[in-house]
Design brief:
Length: 86
């Protein structure tokens, strides 16, 4: 099993090996971090994938205060939240 990251799109591909990318840890359209828990017993494994909610109050405001370059692009591409989540 090979875990990799930096690509924001989650994937789980089985071929010669299993290639797992849980997705982005924070730049996601929900205030959730995506994690995986692997349990290995008797030469067998299970992989549990979880989305853990977190409070991100003030996160985008900090982008504006710090004048982060391309903050509008980042906000639009990765962090746009649904209004119903508030």
């Amino acid at each position: 099993m090979i875990f990799y990251g930096h690509d924001h799109n989650a994937s789980d591909i089985t071929g010669k090996s299993r290639y797992v990318n849980l997705g982005s840890a924070e730049c996601f359209n929900k205030a959730e971090v995506r994690i995986g828990i692997i349990e290995i017993r008797n030469n067998e494994y299970t992989l549990e994938k979880l989305n853990i909610p977190y409070v991100d109050d003030g996160f985008m405001e900090a982008f504006d205060i710090r004048q982060v370059p391309a903050r509008d692009l980042i906000r639009q591409a990765f962090i746009t939240r649904e209004v119903t989540e508030m």
